[in-house]
Amino acid sequence: MAQIVRTEDEGDPRLDDFRDLSTADRRPDRPGGRGLVIAEGTVVVRRLLASAYPPRALLGVERRIAELAPDLADVPVPAYVTSAEVMAKVVGFHLNRGVLAVADRAPQPDADEILARSRVVAVLEGVGDHENIGALFRNAAALGVDGVLLGAGCADPLYRRSVRVSMGNVLRVPFAPLTPWPSGLERVRAAGFRVAALTPRADSRTLREVAADGGRTALLLGSEGPGLTAEALDSADVAVRIPMSEGVDSLNVATAAAVAFYELAAAVN
């Protein structure tokens, strides 16, 4: 069971895992730094505690730690209880959600392992915005995508903002880098997947047509704005588009992905 520890000392060294979360060069979730995983809010903390990521500690106000008591029954880590004011001084901003948890990173499967047990995967290129990464993972978890492969230029899915926006689903959906890029797509094809590049190009097949073909599909998605590079498009087996009303030529990448995930997952279920 978690050990409840009360403290009102903002300088308590036991809280260092939570310190200065708004200071870019000191953030504990930077991959080049300590690489910790940070969960915010009771829903996301619960998902962290239920995941393969080994928890280190919690920090929160009394009410939020109490809400998590059932989830902490078998978790032998300290849960630091303090006031909202002290918590804000430690983390560097006022945290409306009232609770944080930190964990170490867990070993990730490699791309071949994910492909071997999947029917629909998302392959991302150049998605460097942490909020878009988080939204894509949330959509993937909700709509039946089995895994996410990260091509060149993608942000870290375990960055605090990505974890928060995904509502903790980056901790549930397996992901791995796909290298080299874009020739790594040959590994996807060799595993029995058709690589479908999502693009607004007029000469693309409609998403519903391609989904109706059946089979295992890797949906290739590009960054907000520029979209996929020419090299990635050339490496795909088929270009697909979402038909839209006149006057609208594109969607936010996370919204487009949600539509595509639904169509593809429905086709294989």
UniProtKB/TrEMBL annotation:
A Pfam match: SpoU_methylase
tRNA/rRNA methyltransferase SpoU type domain residues: 120-262
Gene3D superfamilies xrefs: 3.30.1330.30, 3.40.1280.10
- Region Disordered: start and end of each range? 1-33
Q: Which GO terms describe its molecular function?
A: RNA binding; RNA methyltransferase activity
Residue ranges with Basic and acidic residues bias: 1-32
Signal sequence region: none
PANTHER family recorded for this chain? RRNA METHYLASE, RRNA METHYLTRANSFERASE 3
Question: What's the protein name?
Answer: tRNA G18 (Ribose-2'-O)-methylase SpoU
Which species? Amycolatopsis thermoflava
